[in-house]
Design goal:
heterodimer, A: 111 residues, mainly beta, six-stranded mixed beta sheet, five-stranded antiparallel beta sheet, 0% helix, 58% strand, B: 110 residues, seven-stranded mixed beta sheet, four-stranded antiparallel beta sheet, globular
Chain lengths: 111, 110
């Protein structure tokens, strides 16, 4: 079993829809939770960062962490074609800062 | 200018050749990392370094070596390249829990 599980999709939605992405994990030591966005042939770009549990909002993006369920989510409101990318969840424990990644979910927003 | 740069961006080589990938960062972070990305497998850690004198193996270090020449420079070497090392390679730098990635090197081993 992988340490971080993420449905690879692909996910296709119409413009303006809400995109919902999630990851589950097994390591209870994880304290830092991140979402990265990766466009084709580019490096991952840090999108959202959350420490411990709770919600964080940044514009159209909301990240949620539920440590009791070992489950994290990313919501994209009013999705745009420019949001079409692969979204990677990542997490690390507080004592080593090594990231464990999900496999990534490919999202296409149709105009 | 980009915070993390990688050279070369693309490389095609033959089995058995020695290859070096280079990474430089201007973010001033102590920690640097090398990952490879394969379809369906996500990003896997090859090596990481917390400072110039501290080098650590990641989950898939066999067949790779690294050198931390300075705080800002971290290079990855494939001593004798093999076809299953064909992948996208990323360098990253970070502080606390986050990491910032370079644009990647696409390596093909024939």
């Amino acid at each position: 079993q992988k340490e971080v599980e993420q449905d690879p999709g692909p996910l296709s939605v119409p413009e303006g829809a809400i995109v919902s992405l999630n990851c589950t994990y097994s390591n209870s030591a994880f304290q830092y939770f991140m979402w990265y966005r990766q466009y084709s042939r580019k490096g991952p770009e840090l999108l959202m960062y959350t420490y411990s549990s709770g919600n964080k909002e940044d514009g159209r993006f909301t990240a949620q962490v539920d440590k009791s369920s070992k489950y994290i989510s990313l919501f994209i409101r009013d999705s745009q074609p420019s949001d079409s990318a692969t979204y990677l969840c990542a997490m690390s424990a507080s004592n080593d800062y090594k990231l464990s990644f999900g496999a990534g979910t490919t999202v296409t927003v149709r105009a | 200018d980009a915070d993390v740069t990688q050279t070369p961006r693309n490389r095609i080589t033959k089995t058995g050749k020695r290859i070096m990938l280079e990474c430089s960062q201007t973010k001033g972070h102590d920690r640097m990392y090398w990952y490879r990305q394969d379809p369906g497998l996500g990003l896997r850690l090859i090596y990481y370094s917390f400072d110039v004198k501290d080098i650590n193996k990641g989950e898939i270090s066999d067949g790779y070596s690294v050198s931390r020449q300075a705080q800002a420079k971290f290079s990855l070497s494939l001593e004798s390249a093999i076809p299953n090392q064909t992948a996208l390679y990323f360098c990253a730098t970070g502080s606390t829990g986050t990491q910032y990635f370079g644009p990647g090197t696409r390596l093909t081993v024939l």
